[in-house]
Amino acid sequence: MLTQRTQHMEYAIRDVVIPAMKLEKQGHTILKLNIGDPCKYDFDAPEYAKQAYINAIKQGKSFYGCSNGITEAKKAIIQREKTINDVTANEDQILINSGVSETINFLCGSLIEQGKEMLIPSPSYPQYLSFPNFFGGKAIEYKCDFNDHWNPDLEDIKEKINSNTAALAVINPNNPTGAIYSKETLEGLAEIAADKKIPLISDEIYDEITFTDYNCFTKIALDRGASIVQMNGMSKNFFAPGWRIGYAIYHNCPEILNSCSAQARTRLCSNTPAQYAMAASLNGSRDFLKENKQKLSRRMDVVGRKCKEYGLAHVKPKGAFYDFIKINTENDKQWVLDLLQEKHVLTVFGSGFGEQGKGFIRIVTLPQEEVLEEAFDRIGEFIQGK
Fold first, then answer.
1. Fewer CB within 10 Å, N or C, the chain?
2. What's the distance, Cα to Cα, between the start and end of the chain in Å?
3. Is the domain of 211 the same as that of 292?
4. 300 and 268 share a domain?
5. Closest of 335, 347, 352, 351 to residue 376, by C-alpha
6. Is the whole-model pTM more than 0.70?
7. Domain end: 262, 281, 300, which one?
8. What confidence tens digit (pLDDT) does each residue in 125-145 have?
9. Among candidate residues 281, 300, 333, the one where a domain is terminated
């Protein structure tokens, strides 16, 4: 018999791909606005990062590395965080992982068991919804307010903290909303965690894909004496999601680090050539990022214009490469499936990101401008019943 913990696992972003694949097999072309993979569109990792990966393989660096990560990569992480975020760390605090997803898994394995709870934003990246439940605990969603630029509701968080609260997760810049939280909100989150002595989990994977002022949550939390696990990697800022390489820095939480390190040893090591590529890349030129952000900004403007044209409410994204758009329906999943069947446009239903996502869809702003134009014209026809 299969275990109960796998019976209710969902991942909305990829689950909607299954019916789309069936349509593709029938010969239909699908306009895909669903998955946050820049390499599926016209983005790519910078050449110097790719060459570093190639060089690592050619130089025979395909061996098992240290379970916590190679020294070269850790040194690059320390320099990068000091330069970009003014955050100080040492090598012993760092655990290199197979992307942020693996760290979320490790953290839930360390902090969550029967009766324990993790506070997560709503809407939220789906893994934060799934993993706490998988480990026998609960994901407790705190409200992020559409009418306040998707900032977290601090009072709602305070009301939901109890003796079973094991951690408070923050995603900033945010997936799925594209929000960048205000400094005041981040300070409030840090003060709550420090006062209640709750470990923080800071997902900063989009911290260089920003279009307004950005404040590093880890820096703010450390200034208030909080314990925080800071997560980042190559997937988004370096447009290399398939490399599956990232890192976590465990600030003021050695017990959590020890527990996660024990789990890391059971999976031997993260991708060794990718670690060498990350070591060579983190402090390299950002010229590629400037160009890519300009492309993304233009595409976000297209989405904003088309939303206005078809009367779709949204909050203009300030970071990442998503837009979370309000639709007039009580069943957003069926709406997404109907749109796919009728107009061959693939989006993700907002309820797959949590309770506050109901009645929304998430789209990526990665496709070329002409694709976005066509996709939204089809969405407009669908709304108008044409």
1. N
2. 47
3. no
4. no
5. 347
6. yes
7. 281
8. 999 999 999 999 999 999 999
9. 281
CA distance linking residue 40 with residue 177, whole number of Å: 20
Q: Is 122 helix (H, G, I), strand (E, B) or coil?
A: strand
273-292 exposure pattern, b = at least 16 Cβ within 10 A, e = fewer: bbbbbbbbbbbeeeebeeeb
- Do residues 71 and 134 both lie within one domain? yes
**Range of the structural domain that residue 322 is part of:** 4-44+287-383
List pLDDT tens digits, range 144-187.
Answer: 999 999 999 999 999 999 999 999 999 999 999 999 999 999 99
Contacts of 22 (CB under 8 A, 6+ apart): none
pLDDT-derived band at 328, boundaries 50, 70, 90: confident
Work out how many domains the chain is built from and give that number: 2
d(CA 365, CA 321): 5
Q: Which amino acid is at 175?
A: N
Together in a domain, 323 and 297: yes
Is the distance from CB of 67 to CB of 46 less than 8 angstroms? Answer: no
Are both 237 and 294 inside the same structural domain? no
